[in-house]
């Protein structure tokens, strides 16, 4: 199949490209063309910016695709541009949404697709706009314009990512453990979660491509390796042979201090992150979700070491200030009694 990936160089999408190549398909990447070094094999590229709608449509107009995988639509308008552009020149559209689009708290645990509702509160913009995108796509499905499949990843770690940790501090976590500097954990650290890694998530998209069972359907695609949030830091400590020091700060206080930085904690991650994958396993037998937390973190640590990631000094200082505030509040609290 000839498969166009809108994006193609992100954490999940680069794995999709690799899996499509391994399966003998012909992936074509549409993006700004700044990261061609990611793929050893000869991959066709269309260079452009989807935000420039006229140029984007003119660039793809001469082509037809069996499948288009859209990894860069974040709202209904983005998705509408994809639908209007490809409804007559593609056999299927696959959109990347997010489990963040589910309303919290869940009605079912592990969460099942048919049991959950989409966010309708704009307070957490990322989740709200993904939900609005899905509501639009359901009108497309109902109208029969073109076969549409929606995949909802949960929090996914992978090579190239910058989203690990409360502050999304990545290699700073290793730095702080090695330097005996405390790490901030939101809440009491016991919120249940299944951490997912990019090669597994990518198998959902690759397996949905050209798969008629997925037409008109929505799926989450997540790990089922049960953990709590503290395990992320404790397991990294095990991998590097040092026990981390953890301090716990309320997700509500963090959000009130900086909604932009900590909204994902307050609106999403303080709740259960457990998902039932029966539906996707039924319809996409090639879907994989077996990378354990230990295996995935080994992959990430090898990447950190291989590329020599520098410490984010600004985030390190912010975490120092949060830790200092935590201890100062504790001392003031004790003085009350």
TrEMBL record:
E.C. no: 1.1.1.355
GO MF annotation terms: oxidoreductase activity
UniProt domain NAD-dependent epimerase/dehydratase: residue ranges: 3-211
UniProt entry keywords in alphabetical sequence: Oxidoreductase
Protein name as it appears in the record: 2'-dehydrokanamycin reductase
């Amino acid at each position: 199949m000839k498969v166009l990936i809108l994006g193609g160089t992100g954490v999940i999408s680069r794995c999709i490209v690799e899996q499509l190549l391994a399966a003998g398909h012909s992936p074509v990447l549409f993006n700004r063309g700044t990261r061609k070094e990611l793929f050893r094999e000869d991959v066709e590229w269309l260079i452009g910016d989807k935000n420039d709608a006229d140029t984007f449509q003119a660039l793809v107009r001469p082509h037809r695709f069996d499948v288009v995988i859209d990894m860069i639509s974040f709202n209904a308008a983005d998705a509408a541009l994809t639908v209007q552009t490809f409804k007559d020149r593609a056999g299927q559209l696959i959109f990347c949404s997010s489990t963040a689009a589910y309303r919290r708290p869940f009605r079912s645990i592990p969460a099942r697709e048919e049991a959950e509702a989409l966010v309708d509160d704009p307070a957490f913009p990322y989740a709200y706009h993904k939900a609005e995108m899905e509501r639009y796509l359901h009108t497309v499905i109902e109208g029969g314009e073109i076969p549409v499949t929606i995949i909802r990843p949960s929090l996914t770690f992978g090579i190239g990512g910058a989203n690990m940790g409360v502050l999304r501090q990545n290699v700073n976590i290793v730095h702080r453990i090695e330097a005996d500097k405390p790490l901030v954990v939101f809440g009491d650290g016991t919120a249940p979660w299944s951490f997912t890694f990019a090669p597994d998530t990518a198998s959902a998209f690759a397996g949905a491509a050209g798969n008629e069972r997925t037409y008109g359907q929505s799926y989450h695609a997540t790990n089922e390796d049960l953990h709590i949030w503290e395990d992320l830091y404790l397991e990294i400590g095990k991998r590097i042979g040092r026990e981390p020091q953890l301090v716990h700060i309320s997700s509500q206080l963090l959000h009130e201090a900086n909604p932009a930085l900590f909204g994902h904690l307050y609106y999403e991650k303080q709740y259960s992150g457990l998902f039932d994958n029966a539906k996707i396993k039924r319809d996409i037998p090639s879907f994989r979700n077996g990378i354990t937390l230990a295996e995935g973190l080994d992959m990430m640590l090898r990447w950190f070491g291989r590329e020599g990631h520098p410490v984010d000094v600004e985030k390190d200082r912010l975490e120092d200030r949060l830790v200092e505030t935590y201890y100062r509040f504790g001392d003031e609290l004790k003085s009350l009694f």
